[in-house]
Design goal:
Strand order of the largest sheet: 3-2-1-4-5-6-11
Shape: globular
CATH topology of the domain at 3-162 and 190-217 and 278-286: Rossmann fold
Strand content: 15-25%
CATH class of the domain at 3-162 and 190-217 and 278-286: Alpha Beta
CATH architecture of the domain at 3-162 and 190-217 and 278-286: 3-Layer(aba) Sandwich
Number of helices: 10
Helix content: 25-40%
Structural class: alpha/beta
Order of helices and strands: EHEEHEHEHEEHEEEHEEHEHHH
Radius of gyration: 19 Å
């Protein structure tokens, strides 16, 4: 492959994927195009020798068409965790997770680009309780209907330096004497961002990945309360966790929706009703061994 379009390449997962592409000798000659709403948001990737940052609105079909034209493959990593209420998916979820994949598929068909890799979410399903998971399923469906040479990844919650999960709890511990926690028994199987990036990049080299959908999980399942305690302890600020009754948790999430960047929404609570865990015996694809959370998290949570 000589040209790759990485949509969402400046984000947390996208940055890891771009760095993995640059690191791999198989992609040494590959030119990477990274569209971003604001060039400053991708400044940390500007030093990479094969990356070209383009300030562009990928939601504009004409702009997207120009970006896709001439590419050998497209990687879509766009995802949001808060999408609003009041529609089948939530307005933001519909735009990011459904309409954008549909536009990417249309642009790819028009440009004759066949190969695509798409990062979705574990337990995405049209009948899921949350707009987030329903929208992720609808985005997958839009891409499948396009008849592309498609590979889909469905990770559980992703951790790593710069994450908005464990890192968020560690930062909150600076000011919070304790954590009143919604859904303390919600289950997750966190997967390291480096493992996700490696799987995404490797799939471009594997013909058997075309048409496949891979669940991505780490080696261990945890309850949310365990993860919060672990994050605060690893950050050097251990904090007690107090589980909230469902009604109180719902009110807390509703109130947090009015806070810019608030850590919880009602749709997040709906998502957590479904365990974000893999089936027993599930392993990472392509023979990769999942990295334990405890091997990575202390190194960045201490900071």
């Amino acid at each position: 492959m000589k040209k790759l379009l990485v949509i969402g390449g400046s984000g947390f997962v996208g940055s890891a994927v771009v760095r993995e592409l640059v690191r791999r000798p198989e992609f040494a000659e590959c030119r990477l195009t990274l569209p971003t709403r604001r060039e400053a948001a991708a400044r940390h990737l500007a030093v990479l020798p094969t990356a070209r940052i383009v300030e562009a609105d990928v939601h504009d079909p004409a702009v997207l068409g120009r970006l896709v034209a001439g590419q050998d493959a497209v990687i879509n990593l766009v995802g949001i965790l808060k999408g609003g209420e009041g529609t089948p998916y939530g307005g933001g979820f519909a735009r990011a997770h459904v309409e954008l994949p549909r536009r990417i598929a249309a642009a790819a068909r028009a440009a004759g680009v066949r190969r695509m890799v798409h990062v979705s979410a574990l337990k995405a399903d049209a009948d899921a309780p949350s707009g987030y998971l329903r929208s992720k399923a609808a985005g997958e469906a839009a891409l499948r209907e396009a008849g592309l040479e498609l590979t889909i990844f469905r990770p559980s919650v992703i951790f790593g330096a710069g994450d908005s999960f464990l890192g968020l709890f560690a930062r909150m511990a600076r000011i919070a004497p304790f954590f009143p926690l919604a859904c303390p028994r919600a289950r997750f199987q966190p997967v390291w961002v480096g493992d996700v990036a490696a799987a995404v990049v490797e799939s471009l080299l594997r013909a058997e990945s075309i048409g496949a959908c891979y669940d991505l999980c780490g080696p261990t399942q945890y309850e949310l309360a365990q993860l919060v305690r672990y994050a605060t302890r690893a950050a050097g600020r251990p904090r007690p966790v107090i589980g909230l009754p469902d009604a109180v948790a719902w009110l807390q999430a509703w109130a947090m929706e009015f806070i810019p960047g608030g850590p919880m929404t009602r749709d997040n609570i709906r998502s957590m009703r479904i365990p974000s865990t893999c089936e027993a015996g599930c392993a990472l694809p392509f023979g990769r061994v999942a990295t334990p959370l405890e091997a990575v998290a202390p190194g960045y949570l201490r900071g």
